Amino acid sequence: MKFFIDTANLAQIKEANDLGILDGVTTNPSLMAKEGIKGTEAVLKHYKDICDIVNAPVSAEVIATDFDGMVAEGKALAAIDKNIVVKIPMIKDGIKAIKWFTDNGIATNCTLVFSAGQAILAAKAGATYVSPFIGRVDDGNWDGVDLIRQISDIYTIQGFQTQILAASIRNSLHIVRCAEVGADVCTCPLDSILGLLKHPLTDIGLAKFLEDAKGLK
Ligand code: G3P
Fold it and tell me: Is 45 a catalytic residue?
């Protein structure tokens, strides 16, 4: 399973990249706004800054919701860097736009996916990635990880090539469970990635080793 970081914060992207286990970055308009980025030029520059840190796929989301607008905006985003993946919402014109980008050799990430039916449509349009938002599914008292399992089963049976990118990850256990049920990618906040490191027995064991190592000097 690949690890993407789900943020537009350059320091966090750099920290995750320095770990050596980062396979990509996802952003969305909310994450960009959180960094205080304003205006088209600043947005495009920020995506370029991210691409300069990470030599791997970087999802950049369109704001337009009509086919022509999404294609124009997506073309401009894709021109920033070879690693840009055009992120497109799961709406009717979005499916048309994904098909257009697929036919024109531009990678896409179909976002705001909450059902297996939506994931089938994204795959039919040729999306490179499909992004089910599992934390938000959990928020509605449904099982987000089970949605990943269902999509994974369907894609395997049908031979769809679209990669399942589990998004809206809220904790480290989400990452482990997504790995269990066949997610191709997990896009995570930095805290959830670093949370995978934690185990009290590791801390206790290391303290003991370091204590005993004093006797070796
Ligand atoms: O990857 C999508 C993510 O950024 C949304 O997360 O926590 O707002 O549901 P959240």
Answer: no
